[in-house]
Amino acid sequence: AGGQVTRSVDTGNGQLSPQERETIDAIVKASDYPLSIVLVGVGDGPWDMMRQFDDNIPSRAFDNFQFVNFTEIMSRPIPTSKKEAEFALSALMEIPAQFKATMNLQLLGKQRGFPHRSVLPPPVSVYRQPSGCSTVKQTQSPGTSYGSPQKNASAPRQDSDVGDQQTCPICWSEAKNLAFGCGHQTCADCGKDLKVCPLCQRAISTRIRLY
User: Fold this and answer.
1) Which of 54, 58, 71, 170 could form a disulfide with 190 if both were Cys (CB 3.0 to 4.6 A apart)?
2) What is the pLDDT of residues 85-110, one digit of tens each?
């Protein structure tokens, strides 16, 4: 926006606004990490400040910023395939040198002094109980803590968990009589409203009734 949004009337020519200074500081700080910043300019700019960022930011561990003028490349009188190739080359041309710099600076895999955070396990998947299926009451033993493995009544079992290989893995009571394009099977009542297979998560495009 040429400073029209972020530049205050109190900021003189040749001086940086607080937002511009914070942006430069953030780019400098990012050079302590194995990160490559690629900024793509779309529109007529002006892009003078972006080119300064690309060439003149001081005090970085390595050159981690690359500016690419998308509009200028796409407006060239050359075939579209060459425009796309030039854009990809301009965006990625500094990545090898940046990667080599992160290796020389030993930034990859570097341990930092941040406190260790325990990552909670993902929630148990919950599947919507299709209409027509019998409901199985879920029981939970007392004292079960958050994150411990639980059996969810509406979650389908894998075939190895089901004693009868011909039993629907969703309701566990009706026989399998509906096959999907992926090869998995359920009963017709459970499978008629499903959008994705509950076992492999593939979109259902084909249903075959089994007799």
Assistant:
1) 170
2) 999 999 998 889 989 998 888 887 77
